[in-house]
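As agreed, record copied across for absentees:
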Amino acid sequence: IVGLSNVSPQIRKVLQHQSGILTDKTRVFEDLDEAVAWFDGKDLETFDTVADPLPLIESLYQSLKSQGNPVVDLESRVNRFMQHLNMEAGAVLLNEGDLVEYVYFIEAGEVSVQTIRPGKTPKILRIQGAGTVFGEIGIYTRDRATATVVVSKDAELYRMSADVLSRLEKEDPELSIVVHRLIATTLGRKLKQVNYALVALHE
């Protein structure tokens, strides 16, 4: 993957008209912070060999199917417990310091996780796309958000509150198991990325 940042509108137009330059292996970012945040969200050690995370519905379907049970009315089961949202770029999903009330599953699009300080340009910490989750720690610990989350590309999301997560466990245990497994996988991936960063800092 090649990342280009701070590309002027004129240069971007030239690149778009030159065949073979901008491909699915090329990303154009508004600035360096956005570029670093996007690459930081990728597992660079296995970037070329591991597929991107699956969107929620497909991920749950594959997980349920792997258990050998027939998957019946999956979307309607999900919609019983999760709110489906379509959000435009610029929408704020979570403010730093807010009590975390929901866990969000990104079905499509992207969100930017950032810190905002009065009088300063927002600092982008990471960018998350389809198949990723945020708010998962806060919903378990009932803590406050440590960052602000803004929709950076029109996004389709599902969200679920802690209370509804508890209801899911009682009313649809089979679906509950794969949802918890998905959240645990997300936590493990984020911990792995933090470990890579710590190792890099000490090298």
In short: The CA atoms of residues 101 and 165 lie 11 Å apart.
